[in-house]
Amino acid sequence: MTLKWSYALNQWNNGHDRFVLREDHERAFKTLSASGFDAVEVPCGSGRWEPLGRKDWIEKYYGSVSGLKCAMAACGIAAASSFVFNPAEPIFEEGAFGLSPLNVADHGRILGTLGQYADILPELGGDTLVVRALPNWSADRAVNQQSMQVAADCWNAVGAMLAARGVKLALNFDCVTMARTADDIGLLLALCDPASVGLSIDTADAAIMGLDPVALFQRFADRTIHVQLKNALARDDLDEYRLPFPEKFMLAGGGSRKIPRWYTELGDEDGIVDIASFHKALVDADYRGWVVVESDQSPVPATSAMLNGWFARNVLKADLRG
Predict the structure, then answer these.
(1) SS3 string of 158-216?
(2) Do 53 and 83 contact (CB within 8 A), yes or no?
(3) Where along the chain do its domains lie?
C-alpha cells in the first residue's frame, strides 16, 4: 500500500510580506517538487496574509482556480491535497474577527466561509478540508457533553455540506487547544457523524501536549482521514498552553524556557516524535488519507523541505509520488 504524500506551505509564509508574489509561490512549488513532493497543503486565510487561502485572492493572483492549478503543474505540483482553516483567525473580507464553533451565532458564518472550499479542492485535485476543531484552552470553558455538542453541531453541518460535494472534513487538535486528552478528542468525535467528519492527527502537536501519537492513531484509526507528520523538540510540561495568547508567548516566544523552535524536521535526532513508528502504524493499518509533512517555524524552508524529503525517501522508504 502506497501512502499519499503532501507538504504544507505554511512554513514559507512566516510573515505578512513573505509570500505575496507569484514568484514566491513558484519558488516554493519548485523546491517541493525537487524534494520529491507533488502535492501541497494550503492555509486558508485573508488577503495578503494567506494569498492562496481564498477563492477571490486565488483569482486575483492567477485569474482562476484552474489558473493556479496550471501554474502549480508547471512547477511539478499535481494537486493541493488539502486546505487548513482556523475559525479564530480574522477574515477581513467578511468582517469576521474571530469565530468559534462554541458560539452558535457563529455557525452560519463558518458554514458560509467554508462553502468555497467545496469547489476549490476538487478543482485542485484535493479532497480534504482540515479545521481547528476547538478554541484555545480557557478557564472559562470546559470539555463536556454540552460544549462538545455545540461544536459538533457546527462541524456536522459543515461536514454534510462538504460531503455532498465530494470533500472530507477533518478535525484537528493543536497543542494549545482546550481538548487536552484522547478522551476529550473522543468525546467530540463521538458526537460527530462518522460518515462526514473525521480526525486529523498532528504528530508534533500531540507530542507537545503529552500524547503518544502512535497510541492516538491506533485508538482513532477508524476516524483518522488526515495526518500532519512532523517532529517536535520539547513537551509543554509546564502547562504553558494556559498562558494568555499562547501562540505568541509560548509557540512564537518560546515560553519561560525560551525554546527557539518547537517544531523540527522528521529526522532530527533531538526530536521527541518516533516518526518511523508512526509511519509503520499508518502502513500496518492500511491508512488511505493524506500524509502532509510539515516543519513549522523553519528558519530556512527550502532546507527543511529537502531534509524531510530525504528522510521520507531514504529512511521511511516512501514513494512520495506514488
Answers:
(1) HHHHHHCCCCEEEEECCCCECCCCHHHHHHHHHHCCCCCEEEEEEHHHHHHCCCCHHHH
(2) yes
(3) 4-314
Q: Under CATH, what is the fold of the domain 4-314?
A: TIM Barrel (3.20.20)
What's the grid cell of residue 142? 470546559
Write the DSSP symbol of residue 132.
Answer: E
Question: 53-84 burial string, b = 16+ CB within 10 Å, else e?
Answer: bbbebbeeebeebeebbebbeebbbbbbbbbb
Which residues are CB-contacts of 79 (< 8 A; sequence separation ≥ 6)?
6, 38, 39, 40, 72, 124, 125, 126
Measured at the CA of 69, the angle between CA 301 and CA 312, to 5 degrees, comes to 40
Q: What number of other Cβ atoms are within 10 A of residue 239's Cβ?
A: 12
CA distance 199 to 70: 30
Spatial separation of the C-alpha atoms in residues 199 and 189, rounded to whole Å? 8
Q: Encode pLDDT of 267-313 as tens digits.
A: 999 999 999 999 999 999 999 999 999 998 899 999 999 999 999 99
Query: What is the tens place of the pLDDT at every residue in 74-84?
Result: 999 999 999 99
Residue 264 clears pLDDT 70, i.e. is over it: yes
Shortest CA distance to 291 belongs to which of 263, 264, 318, 261?
A: 318
13 pLDDT higher than 80? no
Largest Cα–Cα distance of the chain, in whole Å? 50
| All cell numbers assigned to 269 | 535526532
> 180 vs 9, 148, 155, 206, 253, CA distance in Å?
27, 13, 19, 9, 21
Question: How far apart are the C-alpha atoms of 125 and 199, rounded to whole Å?
Answer: 20
- Span 82-128, pLDDT tens digits: 999 999 998 888 888 899 999 999 999 999 999 999 999 999 999 99
Phi (first) and psi of residue 167, to 5 degrees? -115, 140
